[in-house]
Amino acid sequence: MSKTIHTERHRKLRELLVARRKAAALTQTAVAERLGKPPSYVAKYEVGDRRLDVLEFLDVAAAIGFDPCALLRSLVRK
Question: Kindly report the CA angle at 15 between 13 and 19, in degrees rounded to 5?
């Protein structure tokens, strides 16, 4: 297992997070405000400069308004 954040599954997770945010018609700034974070926080996880831990991921899901379990199921290796 690679220790880098630059894996195919991480890229896919970032794509899904961006897609969910855009589908909710939210800007990075709007999500950051809902999270009580600076806009750079959202920008950094969306471009892959930082990873989200599981609790941060749940907070992002709530801020955007999507089911975190459904998104994770789409990342499970088959």
Answer: 115
Q: Nearest-CA neighbor of 16 among 53, 66, 51?
A: 66
Cα 4 to Cα 39: distance, rounded to the nearest angstrom: 24
Question: Residues, the chain, total?
Answer: 78
* Site of tokens 């899901």: 61
List pLDDT tens digits, range 19-38: 999 999 999 999 999 999 99
Q: At what angle are helices 39-47 and 8-23 packed, to 10 degrees?
A: 130
Joined together, the tokens standing for residue 66 give 């999507």
